Each structure stands twice: as structure tokens, then as C-alpha cells.
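Q: Hi! First time doing this. I have a protein sequence and I read that you can turn it into a structure. Is that right? Here it is:
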Amino acid sequence: MNNAMGRQELFGHLIQSFGFEPTEGQSIVLYHLSAFLLSQKENPTYVLRGYAGTGKTTLVKALVKTLPSIGMKYVLMAPTGRAAKVLSSYTGQPASTIHRRIYQAKAFPDGSIHIARAENKSKNTLFIVDEASMIGEQREFGGSSLLDDLLCYVFSGEQCRLLLIGDTAQLPPVESSESPALNCNYLKSEFPITAATYELTEVKRQALESGILYNATDIRQLLGEKLYEYHLPIFHIDGFKDIERIEPETFEEMLHNAFANMSDNEAVIICKSNKNLQVEQKGEYVQPGHPWAYPQHRGRDCYGRQVDGGEKQLLLG
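A: Yes, that's right. Below is the predicted 3D structure, encoded as C-alpha cells:
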């Protein structure tokens, strides 16, 4: 790492790579990152939380662009295959699932296969984990949680550091009401790390031109103010091109149109809960818990498209 570069100089590089006039919150994060990247403290960790549309993506792009100037490598990861693809698409760099990076299969003479945490051979590397809200503490391989194994893997490397990115309003881990990976106080109490955090709350004006982000921000404000006594509907659709009301009789046709295009893998359906969630694979409806429903499975969906881990067609039951 280029130890000759000071914090102010690195901050200037990050601002230049950012490419836009940062908001007050974005500027604070960039300044924090300049200290985080040069920190010599034990197991440096930074937790970046932020609403949708606050510029987390732009900050990560600026960071990835700047790291080579200080001689630091980076690894991009996300909890699911879809999230990893999104991370790769906006950074222009390879990204993988956390499981693929930190675990490895070991074969034993009796023919059994065991999954164990891999050895981190990286040096002077920043591990960037997007959508960290989904990282939970349910026990997985060897009795450890994904959060435990992630931190153990990262900090077993030489001069490695960890950046956790996410939105506390996004999906928490399974069987959890909140996201431990985005709770800085919890992380510091459970792991031998030096951690800092910041939450971006200012949604950019351009983001609010999207009907999806406009409504997401509106709902988030209602939740934050605990205004549960509201009148439905609370969605605003007038004047937006990316959100529309669908009548029940046209839903099935819209569903098939959205998923029938072999080249389009961007369609997503949001369900109220997992109670009636079904996964359509090879023309069958599979209830959660069935082997087909596990994200590690790879196969082809009912339209013949390759489906990687974490990518499923979600239908309302």
C-alpha cells in the first residue's frame, strides 16, 4: 500500500473519482473512507448504511476506481447470485457470492464431502460486501454462522479490511428481525474489530424521478415516523413511467410476458410473505424447503434459461 499518501490526498482522489458534487453525507463518507483505508488499527471495518437512491452505488464505484492508486486490491461479494451480478454490473468488475468465496468443499476417503471455510490468501485487500442486510447468524457449515465465517475469513488474511454496505429497510436475514451485519455496535461487541459507520439519508432528486424509489422513500418515512394509521392505497403512480396499476385479470398475461423473454433476467416479483411463496422450476411449483428451492441449486427454469444460485422466479400462491 502507498503509505506515503496522506488522508487529505486520498480524500481528494476519492472526490475526483466520485465525479459529481457530493452531498454533505456523501462527503462525510468519503472522508471516513480515506481514514478507513489508511487505518493501521486492528481488523478495520466500515459499515455503510443508506436509503435507496442516496448514492451508495456511486460511492462504491469511486472507491473501486481509487484503490489502485494506493496499491490496494479489492474483492467484491454479495449474499446472493443476483446481488453479485448487480454489484458486478455497476462496478464493471467481477463479483461473487459470499459462499463461493469463503467456503470450499473437501472430499474424504469415505466418499463424503464436507464444506469448510477456505483459507484467505489475500494480502492488503479490501473486501466489499453489498446487500449486507441479508447476512445472518443462523448456523451453517461447521456450526458457525455466515457472519462469523465472513469476518474470520477476511481478517485471517494479511492487512485485509472489510466494507459492509446495505440498507436497514431491506430484507433482514432469515428468522431475524434486524440485520446484525449492519449494526456497528453489535459487531464491535461480538468481534475483535475496529469499526465505524455512517448512514446516508438524503435521497437524490434524480432518484425521486423514479416511481419505485419515490414510493419506497415515502413508505420508509411512514415507517420511520411510525405512522401506521394510514389510508390505502399509499402508492403514488401518476406521472411515473416505471410503476403502474395491474388489474387482476391481466396479471397472468403480464407475468408470462415478463418471464418469457429468454434474454431478460431482470423481472422480480415481490411477495407479502413466504407463506404462499412458490418457486417455478421445470414447469413445477415447488414449496420452500424443497431441494429445488435452495439457492445453491443450479439448473434451468421453466423457460429453459440457466438459473444460478439465488435466482428464482417468485410467484404469488
